[in-house]
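May I ask for an example protein's residues together with how it folds?

___
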Amino acid sequence: MTNAALPLTIAGSDTFSLAPLVEKTSPAVANISIVVNQSNQQLLPDLFDFFSDDELLFLNQPVIGLGSGVIIDAAKGYIITNFHVIEDAQEIRVTLTSGQEFNALLVGHDQQSDIALLQINSNKSLTQMLLADSDLVRVGDFVIAIGNPLGLGQTVTSGIISALGRSGLNFENLENFIQTDATINSGSSGGALVNLSGELIGINTALLASSGGNIGIGFAIPSNMINNLVDQLLQFGEVRRGVLGIKGGELTHQLTKVFGLESKHGAFIYQINPDSAAEQAGLEAGDVIVSLDGLSIISFSALRAKIGSLSVGKKVELGIIRDAKALSLSATLKAIEPGKIKFIPPPLHPLLAGATLMNPAGGNKNKGVLVDHVKKGSIADDFGLQQGDLIIGINRKKILNLTELTEFIKSSPPVLALNIVRENRKLYLILHYKAQKTDGYRPQTDQNIKK
């Protein structure tokens, strides 16, 4: 068993070169090809655009899916790759730089995070790549990307870490990508993103391209996320992810002003689900989660991805901001309840059109403004206001009656954070006057995932 890592200077010279690093890491990266019951041209339309009809004859082979993978355990032959590389495969073939070829066994996969774990059986020593601590990666770090672009064979490119915590490529998936400008092309999916110590910091998984070409924006799944998910696949044969049980969204500039927050990053909580890990931990609507196990949380998407890679029963330490004060809470993640898996509701809208508001009956101990009716299909209905909701505050100001609410709205603040009591539970609805429906005020839930 060999671990891929070596210095970068050429022996006897001060000349800098990536060659020693590539020589030691490249044997840990495999080419992956699959056989499925579809035509070549259906699966590889971009590749077929490069060839004429006559030239396509040599591609008319049963092997019609191409990708890459990384050996992470040489002794047991475990290889990590993307789920989309091996999806629908009837046969998976792995080819190493040595020329050795293997039929691979699919140990397990997780579509939500786009990873799959394969296993090969070799009677020769393999080279593995150690997993780095991806939480230590910094923007500006040099990296190399190794993969099998367009089935041409193993290819190495270099670049830097361009950004961290990227999301939004596929809203239903768990995304907390490392962004790099190292060139990544079709077929490089599942390949390695490597630091200068020869350690795996991520699995290359996607790219943004213009007219099919690379524009220097590639994405990789962080190694820490991979490590957590692989542990579950090996233990259970599937990912048994835990959830906090919250609905929330990104901490925007407007929300920081409304709630008087100094932090510009974090995950804002709109609502706590009943009998959830979050409720039992003492989290409340209006809290902002700024750290998880001592590591900064820059967005709700990042929180969702990190929680989504942890297993049921995992205890986590949450750093939160509540009423401008820093608190620390412990939560033990729970299993997803099938009946509570929901898609994201429509975006919040800044207007109250369609809602009938009134003062509650005199006997109501909860003073505020009652939502008496919400017209179906209206703007108010669209952003989630419901009949029976009791508005008790706006932008941290208590609202005792309809007169106070009307007076407050006359000032036309750009953001309205409505504090609402619904079925004896408090939650927030955020209204943004000058935004369209695509303004990003879309509550998310850490339960918007599949088992």
